[in-house]
Specification:
Helix content is 63%, strand content 2%. It has a two-stranded antiparallel sheet. The chain has 8 helices and 2 strands. Helix 7 (177-194) packs antiparallel against helix 8 (198-218). The chain has 224 residues and is an all-alpha fold. The chain is globular, with a radius of gyration of 17 Å. A hairpin with a 2-residue loop joins strand 1 and strand 2 (112-113).
C-alpha cells in the first residue's frame, strides 16, 4: 500500500464513502435473509444520515470545501455539464452498458407514492452524495494516485494515468458503467479546469437532482 493512505487527511475523505458502500452490502444481506424490498427502502435515509453525520463531524478537515466564488463561466459550465451528464445517463442504457440488473428504488406503496421517501431520496442524491463522492473520487483518489500527499497536488496537473484509473473505477461503481465513466470524466475535467471541488459538486448535484425529477415524472424507478 502506498504511503499512509488512511492518515489524517485521507480518512475524512475515504470513510464516508466506505460507509455509503457498506449499506449496499447490508441491504443485500437483509434481502437474502428475507426482508421485503419495501422495508429496505428505509435504509436509504439511514445511509444518508450516517454519511451526512460523518461529513459534518469532519467538516473542518475539508479545506478544499472552503468557499471561493466560482465565477459565472464556471457556474454555467458546471450546470451545463450536469445536465449533459443526465441526458447521457438516461440514454447510455443498452444491455451491454450495464452490470447486472439494478434493483431500483420504488417509493410507491399500493400504487401511491410515499412522498417522504421521494424527498429524502432526492435530497440525499442531490445534496449529500455529490459532496461525499467528489471528496473521495476527485479530491482524494484523482490526486492520491499521483501523489500520496494529495492535498499538495494541483488538480490541473493530474496525470492521464490518474484520470483514467479514477474514471474507470467511478464507472464500475455504478450499474450503468459506461454512463458512470462519462460522468466521472466530466466531473474530473470540471475539477481539473476550475481547481475548485465545488464545480464537480455542483454538476454532480444537478445531474442527480434532475435525474430524480425525471424518474418521478415518468415512474422510471429502475434508474434509482
Amino acid at each position: 500500500m502506498r504511503g499512509n493512505m488512511f492518515d489524517r487527511a485521507a480518512l475524512p475523505r475515504v470513510a464516508p464513502f466506505l460507509a455509503y458502500l457498506s449499506f449496499i452490502f447490508i441491504a443485500d444481506m437483509l434481502g437474502r435473509l428475507g426482508v421485503a424490498a419495501q422495508d429496505l427502502r428505509w435504509l436509504y435515509p439511514v445511509k444518508i444520515g450516517v454519511v451526512l453525520g460523518m461529513l459534518l463531524y469532519w467538516r473542518r478537515s475539508y479545506t478544499e470545501l472552503v468557499w471561493t466564488p466560482l465565477g459565472a463561466r464556471a457556474i454555467l459550465g458546471a450546470l451545463a455539464g450536469g445536465v449533459v451528464v443526465f441526458l447521457l445517463w438516461i440514454n447510455l442504457d443498452a444491455s451491454w452498458m450495464m452490470i447486472g440488473i439494478a434493483d431500483g428504488f420504488d417509493p410507491r406503496t399500493d400504487g401511491r407514492i410515499e412522498w417522504s421517501l421521494v424527498v429524502l431520496r432526492i435530497a440525499g442524491a442531490a445534496l449529500v452524495v455529490p459532496v461525499m463522492e467528489e471528496l473521495f473520487w476527485r479530491s482524494f483518489l484523482l490526486r492520491w494516485i499521483d501523489k500520496p500527499d494529495f492535498l499538495r497536488a494541483d488538480p490541473r496537473l493530474a496525470s492521464a494515468k490518474a484520470f483514467a484509473i479514477s474514471v474507470l473505477l467511478f464507472g464500475f461503481e455504478h450499474n450503468l458503467w459506461l454512463a458512470g465513466m462519462v460522468a466521472g470524466a466530466a466531473y474530473s475535467l470540471l475539477y481539473m479546469r476550475s481547481q475548485s471541488l465545488w464545480s464537480p459538486i455542483l454538476a454532480h448535484g444537478v445531474t442527480n437532482g434532475v435525474l430524480g425529477l425525471w424518474i418521478i415524472s415518468g415512474g422510471h424507478w429502475i434508474y434509482w
